[in-house]
Amino acid sequence: MSQAIGIKEIHIESIHEKETVRPFGLRDKIGYMFGDLGNDFFFILVSSFLMVYYTDVFGISAAFVGILFLVARLWDAVADVTWGRFIDSRKPSKHGKFKPWIFRMSFPLVISGVLMFVHIPGMSTGFYEAYAFVTYILWGTLYSTVNIPYGSMASVITNDPGERTALSTFRTMGAMIASLIINAVGPLIVFVDNKADADGFFMAAVIFGILSFASYMASYKLSTERVSVPVNTGIKPNLGRTIKALLKNRPLITILGASLIFMMSTMLIGAANIYLFKDYFSNTAALSIVGIIQTVTVFIAIPLVKPLVARFGKKEITAVGMLLAAFVYILLFFIPNVSTSQFIALAAIGMFGYAFFNTVIWAFVTDVIDYHEFLTGMREDGTVYSFYSFARKVGQALAGGIGGFAITAVGYDATLKVQSQNALDGIYALATLVPGVIYLLIFLILVFLYPLNRQRTNQLSIELAEKRKKRK
């Protein structure tokens, strides 16, 4: 009980010296949810439809688009760290350290997003390639200026581990809502008579751009930075020293490794499922059902996360969830002659298992930010979060082609109407055994390598509070 009181007392300390600030509550959770809603209204639109826009409207080759996406991800990774360091060098304003940047940069971000979908008829292929390169890189850079402060902000909204889990949960909820809206409504706007329509894409960009900007403003208005973090004194910020400390931050390195492996598995499943239902089950309609079920499992997990984390801890519930997912996918591999409906039913249980990791991951990041301060005495929220984002984007760039490579490796031949049995068996293994083994690996990483269990996380909050009081 004394530990809980020690943590709660920090919440009433304002980032504005002795100014009284309202306690953490539902308003903050909804505000933080709106932030990722704003992010994903455009991010998912781009992820889902930008390639087909470039190939079918601009007439750019898929190979060029692939190179563009690779270069952009690597550039974004650098932009993340640069912007994170910049924010950490700024003093907080009366509105906080991170919120003002969401307010300042969200409008330029949305405008750059709309510009990506502006089509000028009759231009040359070279013009369209140059236009795509400039506008996409610009959008990605501006996305960093909003996403880095947004992700970092969770660590100063509250420092209570349970409340941070709630923020992570609501962030995931925002992403899921955006995904549902865009995947349901987007195709109806951007395609006319089953063809990509330039005017439809522009209309979608404007509509989702307005919704994105409104969501950012709601996040700015509803969220409150309340944790009092002393200004770094006595130690000059030094990138070399920071990187050295980050590499010694075992929780950060561990959770980053688990996150990258999980991301690669997600990409692999996404690619393999298309061929699994098209060629193995001969039922592409079931792909829509799988997409809906995947979203539903997250919403089922969301109300369970907070009470389970409060009782057992983040590390503990995500490890159990990954073990459940690993068991289900490995079991699917060994079940003979499974039908489409049986596969979906069992896979749904596996999706429910890994939904906990997907939901809680952002709360892990706030904990490793605290651990960095514990190690170094420096509060560098933006830098630590941007380092995490940097590594994820490099991973995305490197893992982008993993699905295509794996499908080719098992013997898939696009020229054949019916694939060989070896190819079909390989596709089934890619969709079941491989992710099952990956989820088992993540379970082992969480259990044996990640050091911040429930007890240590709570103790870390108390120790940091004491250190901050001494530094004041």
Q: Which architecture of the largest domain does the CATH hierarchy give at level 2?
A: Up-down Bundle
Report the portion of residues in β strands.
under 5%
Read across the widest sheet, the strand sequence of neighbours is: 1-2
Q: Which fold does the CATH topology of the largest domain refer to?
A: Growth Hormone, Chain: A
Number of strands: 2
Tally of DSSP helical segments: 17
Q: Quickly name the level 1 CATH class of the largest domain.
A: Mainly Alpha
By CATH, the superfamily of the largest domain comes out as MFS general substrate transporter like domains
Low-confidence segments, given as residue ranges, are: 1-18
Question: What general form does the structure show?
Answer: globular
End-to-end C-alpha gap? 26 Å
| Estimated radius of gyration | 23 Å
Structural class: mainly alpha
User: Strand count, sense and closure of the main sheet?
Assistant: 2 strands, antiparallel
- The chain-level mean pLDDT equals 87
Number of spatially distinct domains: 2
Helix content: over 70%
What would you say this structure looks like, in words?
The protein has helices at 2-11, 26-56, 62-88, 99-116, 125-157, 161-190, 198-222, 239-248, 250-280, 286-312, 314-334, 340-376, 381-399, 402-409, 421-431, 433-448, 454-471, and strands at residues 191-192, 195-196. The protein has 472 residues and is an all-alpha fold. The chain starts with a helix and ends with a helix. One of its GO terms (molecular function) is symporter activity. This is MFS transporter. It comes from Oceanobacillus piezotolerans. Keywords: Membrane, Transmembrane, Transmembrane helix, Transport.
